[in-house]
Design brief:
single chain, Aspartate Aminotransferase, domain 2, four-stranded mixed β-sheet, 15 strands, 37% helix, 16% strand, binds pyridoxal-5'-phosphate, PyrdxlP-dep_Trfase_small, Aspartate aminotransferase family protein, Aminotrans_3, pyridoxal phosphate
């Protein structure tokens, strides 16, 4: 595949992987960077545009990962780059809590419009998804005066002390790094492939668990990803989320949608909650919201958000002006470029390709997800044991396709392509993955 003449819109492997420049950088990394920071593909990236990333040796990869769902709008999106360039020369930092600036307010206004529900909403901004979850919990506790926090099995919420306690899996996120936070309860959720329950039955099971094991009167919030990301793109049964919201409302519990991975046009609606008819009390956004710039939003019912006293929330870098400008550039394209239609186009091309693959490969137990957030789960049809997807992802990487793994049992391949990916790039990428699966 030494195809140097190919246009920069296709993959092109021109050296062994890793190439000589990446190998030299990997040595420097090993010497200088903490080993707790891994890498999935052993190459260093020099530049990227839309769905193609180029490494320091000139190899080009089709990116089905988007830095874990961050560059949803495409790498170096023109509008984002222009907005960042302009803002960085005007104001790089002033701390919104001392001397405010307009782009922060504009992002809050856009999120009030774009998040589910037409109730009054307010937002504030932090630097990462984990921090958004932390703050969502703080605000819910302040608003309710209650201590307990509920999450569901297979969830992932981050790497801070509170959020690593909220994760379903301690490994690798919390191993040996306790003590963990208190008052966090992991309830059963909805995982149709494994539990076989419909939405009503799954909701009843969750509610029973919370009532008996936690006590609704002590519960401040229930935090759920509408489609679970790290857990393996688990789509809850229809009805589950709205029934849980009804139960939360009836019991004075704040129900929080962790849309850090599923939000901002990833699934074909601006927020994935909409796909289930769920209007959450609070919506957390991060990853895809600013085309690669670090910012995370906490958006909630105005009365819940305003329950926190002045000075009770904030942070030095949160809602940085350059990140806000990037977020405005992304959120304005939601309607101007009809990004949700792009996510549905990705699904219209990708889902049939995956289903075709599944028809010939009995180890694909399920094709699931929505929009540009699709996955396959691999299970040995004879033993029922999960099949690890790491080797398949590694093999695809050598052929110029970056695809991420997921799943509590590491047996899911997740597809999180940019909305700028072309139909042709999708077809080519799945061809490579099909070969990697056959060679397994
Ligand atoms: C990635 C992720 C987080 C944590 O976000 P960071 O920016 O890595 O701190 C939280 N929740 C979900 C659903 C995520 O996918």
């Amino acid at each position: 595949m030494t195809d140097t003449a190919a246009p920069a819109t296709s993959r092109s492997i021109v050296t062994e992987i890793p190439g000589p420049k990446s190998r030299a950088l990997l040595e420097r990394k090993a010497a200088a960077v903490a080993q707790g920071i891994p890498h999935q593909l052993p190459v260093f990236i020099a530049e990227a545009h839309d769905a193609i990333i180029t490494d320091v040796d000139g190899n080009r990869f089709i990116d089905l990962g988007c830095g874990i769902g961050v560059t949803t709008i495409g790498h170096t999106n023109d509008e984002v780059v222009a907005a960042v360039r302009e803002q960085v020369g005007l104001l790089t930092h002033s701390l919104f809590g001392t001397t405010p600036y307009e782009p922060y307010v504009r992002v809050a206004e856009l999120l009030a419009e774009l998040t589910p529900g037409d109730h009054a909403k307010k937002s504030f901004f932090v630097n990462s998804g984990s921090e958004a979850v932390e703050n969502g919990v703080k605000i819910a506790r302040r608003a309710t005066g209650r201590r307990a926090v509920a999450v569901v099995e297979h969830g992932y919420h981050g790497r801070t002390n509170l959020t690593m306690t909220m994760n379903f899996k301690p490994a690798p996120y919390a191993t040996g790094m306790g003590p963990l936070a208190s008052d966090i309860f992991h309830a059963p959720g909805s995982y149709p492939l494994r539990d076989g329950l419909d939405g009503a039955a799954a909701a009843k099971r969750t509610q029973w668990y919370l009532e008996k094991h936690v006590g609704a009167a002590d519960l401040a919030c229930l935090v759920i990803e509408p489609i679970q990301g790290e857990g393996g793109f688990i789509v809850p049964a229809d009805g589950y989320l709205p029934l849980m919201q009804e139960w939360c409302t009836a019991n004075g519990v704040v129900m929080i949608a962790d849309e850090v991975q599923s939000g901002v046009c990833r699934t074909g609606t601006t927020f994935a909650s909409e796909q289930f008819g769920w209007v959450p009390d609070m919506v957390l956004s991060a990853k895809g919201i600013a085309g690669g710039m670090p910012i995370a939003g906490v958006t909630g019912r105005a009365e819940i958000m305003d329950a926190v006293h002045t000075g009770g929330i904030g942070g030095t870098f949160g809602g940085n002006p350059v990140s806000c400008a990037a977020a405005v550039a992304v959120l304005e394209q939601v309607t101007s470029k009809d990004l949700n239609a792009q996510a549905r186009r990705v699904e219209a091309v990708l889902r049939p390709l995956l289903e075709e693959l599944a028809a010939s490969r009995p180890e694909i137990a399920e094709v699931r997800g929505k929009g540009a957030m699709l996955a396959i789960e691999l299970v040995d049809p004879e033993t029922g044991e999960p099949i690890p997807t790491g080797p398949i992802s590694a093999a695809a990487g050598l052929e110029g396709v970056l695809v991420l793994t997921a799943g509590t049992d590491y047996n899911v391949l997740r597809f999180l392509p940019s909305l700028a990916i072309t139909d042709e790039q999708l077809r080519e990428a799945i061809e490579v993955i099909g070969r990697a699966l056959s060679a397994r």
